[in-house]
Amino acid sequence: MTALAAPPATRRAPRAGRGPRMRRRLAPYVFVLPFVAVFVAFSVYPLFFTARLSFTDWRGTGAATWVGWDNYTYLLTNPAFWSSLGNSAVLWLLIVPVQIVLGILVAVLLNNAKLRLRGLYRVAFIVPFVTPLVAVAQIWVVLFDQRYGAVNAFLGLFGLPDTGWLTTSAWSKPTLALLFLWKTTGFIVIILLSGLQSINASIYEAADLDGASKARQLWSITVPLLRRTIGFAVVLQTLAVFQMFAEPFVVTQGGPYGSTTTAGYYLYNHITRADLGTGAANSFLLVVLVMALSLLFVRLLRAKD
Amino acid sequence: MAANPERTRLRIGSHLFLMLLLAAFLFPVAWALLSAFKPADDIVRSPLTFDVTTFTLDNYTAMFQDVPIGQGFLNTAVVLLLKGAATMFFAPLAAFAFAKYQWAGKHLVFGAVLITLMLPTIVLIIPLLLEMKELGWVNTYQALILPGAVDAFAIFWMRQVISAVPDELLDAARVDGCGEFAIFWRVVVPVIRPGLAGLGVLTVMNIYNDFVWPVVAASTERMATLQVVLSTLAQNITGNRIGADYATVTGELLAASSVALIPLLVLFILLQRHFINGILAGSVKG
Amino acid sequence: MQRHLLRRRALLASAALAAGAPALAACGPDIASDGESGGSSLLKAPDRTEGEITIWDRSGDLFEVFEGVIADFNAKYPDITVNHVAVDIDAKLQNTLITGADVPDGVFLDDAKVGGFTDYLWDLSDVLAPYAADIAQQKLDVNTVAGGVYGVPFDLDPGLLFYNATALEAAGIDVAAIATYDDLLQAARDYQAAVPGSAPIHLEQSAFLGQLQLEMYASQLGTSIADADGALRLDTPEFERILTFLDTIRSEGLGTRAEYLTPTDIAELDNGNQVFYPWAIWFSFAPQQVLTETAGDWRAAQLPAWDAGGARSGAMGGSSFVLPKDGPNADLAWLFYEFLMFDEAGYTAVWGPGDVYPEGLATSIPSYTPAADPAKPLYTEITALGGQDLWTVATEAGAQIPGGTPTPAWWAGAVDYLGNNVQRMLDGDMTPQEVLAQSSEDIQTNLVDRQ
Fold first, then answer.
1. Max CA pair span of chain A
2. C-alpha to C-alpha distance for A60 and C30, rounded to whole angstroms
3. Is C121 helix (H, G, I), strand (E, B) or coil?
């Protein structure tokens, strides 16, 4: 890009010989300044604060006591901390693969300009995305009630027994995962659609001529060409799943038996108990984990190049 | 579209599949919108039926009487306007710097964007709150607006969009004597308008639906945004509802949720073309 | 969005930035220096009666009740303006106290949570002194931490045995004969024999409410999960006895397992499968506002005793009013609560018939004993209880509640261990002994030792 550096401005008489060039060198710094200011004020400062807090015992009032690595050793040797990570990992497994497969199928179908009702489908899939979560939570509680919920009533038609969707630790994660899928799949569909737009239609025409079935085309043409977009979606959703807090907060409050106590919700538990030092240590561990996961995915994507 | 049996089967199959999903996606929202017109007791007692003869506006009247939803709308509007404007202006501007300039420290600052993207809100809640305390900003609009005012995802995404703007266009503008900001404002912005439209809708939705930070940052009714109002209402149901009038509150909550949902739904349906095309604009070959 | 989705170099740079953070850390709370010993935290009664107070309440029926009392308060104190707001207290109180900004003058709070906030609250022992002798001992005890009293006791919530009189009568069961929990089990067996498929006794499925109910049974036996010094006393014969009782209900199939007043619970109450509900008085809300089929069929009696002649009630839940030190007019808020709780005009307005509860606030009784006089009912006969005189039943039960201990600050946190383990027992996955041993160990290491 620097090779294309602008020739000295000529048409209008420059104020000073080095003005435009200088301004061009300074411009990006000015342009990112507002972001950097907000970042320093509302991310860096709180992060440093959290860092220091994580080595103390502090209840939100009075003086904090320096406790060294105590909060970290407490967390790292506490089964509840590990199980909160485990819960998030299981939710990831329940959400991300399903969402990607479903997202690709829907995106491919919606990408067909001749599809009837395309506008309707597009709106329908994004509606959950705009619905307030607090309302959704209530809807979920009513729909998944063990004996009188719509879901069990429907499954009962096929002779299936009532399931304690929100009351048993076996089903609470799938039920929560379903909520997350419902809420965010529309957005993933749109991201995948954006990837599909850049695939040249002529590839499919050639495959049609070769007599390849649609299913085969999907698997051998679309998916490989979409790999980068899929990777992007996976990274986005991984971040979202490991940060998940609001969903268990409003639907299950982390239960039953802590089975939906995600990494984010476990951290919140320390805060509600005013154990801010432990909460800070937990925050740091979570940030490190999320960053490590992101790096891992980026590396996996690179390795396939 | 000749009578190719595979094609036909595929077409019917895909519509069946999409219809099924459509039903699953719309059912919960439709349920909430309809149930808000049922007598509060019936919502809890028989959630699945809808009896036209018992149609009532009681939940709405009770809600408008008990819940400061007007104040909620007002606060949300203020935050939406200011925070939205900040993101809509500063995020593309920063993205422009990342996409079209070479400068020392670019990777470091872009790393900051990624960090912001990766930081769970919940991690920052307590330190941010204490920072607001130090600044004397608790229960102010600045506390609701400034943290996250230049959204990282917006920068990340606009960077993709702006990358697609041909460099030649920018250089031509420079030849014409445009300053760097003028290039952004008069060349880049018009070109990426579809992307900006998409960003606009997404930003509105994110700010409108945000509740984790506002619940913490706005403890007074005067500052409560719409989502804070809703979560205050929901607390009676999700918490241990000792003595709370469960049915009435559920009815009010559904009415309030409907009122909160409808503007966004209408906005989205009106702008869906812009939104989706806008997001698709990000795909123009990278 | 095809190329350069995430730049590895940028990510590495960001990782380095984050790794450097702990080293820099110049900001944070003061570390062990000032020590908050400042002024006295003993609230004195104000010598002024003018100003504005901000009062936080949960939204819902109680909010409406208190809202209705403000006019009566203003009749006595015309110059105190009450700014009454409905707030999500669980989500907001702690953060508000930490930041000290816009702190309310008075807050409605669950008794179980008072202990967690005492650092921020006025000690009310001085202003409460004239009334203390007349306040139910259990309510005073739960609000007492290290000699200070941190809440104005609001309601007393005696546990009662709610039962479906119509259904039980039809099955030939005499509730008056139920004097002990063994009698209750027998009555449940008899009812099940008469109504096959029924599961007569409520078994709470919410971990939080289950633990609260457990404390009700324990309160009857004069114990609780922590002693007066906050030390754990869970692994005791009393708790084993209670859990064994619950486990018997489970193993014999006598219990309806449901969360309090969720649709399942309501339906099982309304169809006559669930006929015994040992719960705090606030269950009376169900026949009054939730149940349709069986609304007039329910009655309340004192709880059975653990041993013949033992206490026939225990406390379950309840709330108090706390006054934050940072509230600018907390002293005036005291006048508000003093009026509400200890002035006849006040407590009559709270518990007496009103717009919200036409028959009176029959979901609790006053904790101030002169107000809870069996001879002077504040609320009328309750239609949903078949016209029963709930006031007499409740006040007589309330008088039997043994004294209590302050609820430890970690009580709500214990739900993750004790509350959950009780549920595991009801799933059939743990024995009562295992529940007590395991919960004691977990609560000790994760909560008590980390205070």
1. 84
2. 11
3. strand
- Strands C80-86 and A65-66, how do they pair? unpaired
DSSP reduced 3-state for C366: strand
Contact assessment for residue B257 and residue A132, using Cβ atoms and an 8 Å cutoff: yes
The C-alpha atoms of residue C436 and residue A258 are separated, in whole angstroms, by: 18
Give the pair of three-digit tokens for residue C223.
Answer: 């114990």
Chain A to chain C, count of Cβ pairs less than 8 Å apart?
143
**What gap in Å lies between CA A147 and CA C264, rounded to an integer?**
6
How do strand C276-280 and strand C319-322 relate by DSSP bridges? Answer: unpaired
Asked if B29 is an interface residue toward chain A (Cβ–Cβ < 8 A), one would say: yes
Q: Residues 306-365, chain C: which have Cβ within 8 Å of A? A: none
Contact status of A55 with chain B (Cβ, < 8 Å): no
CA dihedral A96, A101, A103, A107 (to 10 degrees): 160
Paired tokens of C155: 């309601």
**Cα-based angle A111, A112, A116 (whole degrees, multiple of 5):** 115
Quick check: B66 and C59 CB within 8 A? yes
State whether residue C199 is helix, strand or coil: coil
Give the distance between the most distant pair of CA atoms in chain C. 82
Q: Give the residue among C263, C268, C428 at the shortest CA–CA distance from A146.
A: C263
DSSP chain A: -GGGPPPPP-SSPPSSTTHHHHHHHHHHHHHHHHHHHHHIIIIIHHHHHHHHHTTEE--SSS-BEE-TTHHHHHHHT-HHHHHHHHHHHHHHHHHHHHHHHHHHHHHHHHT-TT-TTHHHHHHHHHHHHHS-HHHHHHHHHHHT-TTT-HHHHHHHTTTPPP--TTTSHHHHHHHHHHHHHHHHHHHHHHHHHHHHHTS-HHHHHHHHHTT--HHHHIIIIIHHHTHHHHHHHHHHHHHHHHT--HHHHHHTTT-STTTT--HHHHHHHHHHTT-HHHHHHHHHHHHHHHHHHHHHHHHHHHHT-
Q: Can you tell me the ipTM of this complex?
A: 0.84
Tokens of A159: 């002779």
C116 touches chain A (CB under 8 A): yes
- Cross-chain Cβ contact B242/C282 below 8 Å: yes
- Scan for tokens 């010094």, then name that residue: C229
d(CA A259, CA A267): 15
Burial of B5 (0-12, 13-18, 19+ CB in 10 A): exposed
- Whether the upstream peptide bond of residue A256 has omega within 30° of 0, thus cis, is yes
Q: Is C43 in contact with C127 (CB distance < 8 Å)? A: yes
**Residues C96, C85: contact at Cβ < 8 Å?**
no
User: Residue C220 and residue C311: Cα distance in Å, rounded?
Assistant: 6
Strands C148-149 and C144-145: antiparallel
Contacts 24+ apart (CB under 8 A), C392-397: C393/C160, C393/C300, C393/C301, C393/C302, C394/C158, C394/C160, C394/C281, C394/C300, C394/C365, C395/C365, C396/C302, C397/C158, C397/C159, C397/C160, C397/C302, C397/C303, C397/C312, C397/C313
- Token readout for C34 is 């000032």
B235-247 per-residue burial string, b: 16 or more CB within 10 A, e: under 16: bbbbbbbbbbbbb
Q: How many residues does chain C have?
A: 451
305 residues of chain A, pLDDT tens digit each: 334 444 444 444 444 445 777 888 899 999 999 999 999 999 999 988 899 999 999 887 778 889 999 999 999 999 999 999 999 999 999 999 999 999 999 998 888 878 888 888 888 888 888 887 877 877 887 778 776 677 887 888 888 888 889 888 889 999 999 999 999 998 899 888 888 877 777 888 888 888 877 778 888 888 888 888 888 888 889 988 988 988 898 888 887 888 999 999 999 888 888 888 999 999 999 989 988 888 887 777 665 54
Q: Give contacts of C26 with chain A, Cβ < 8 Å.
A: 48, 52
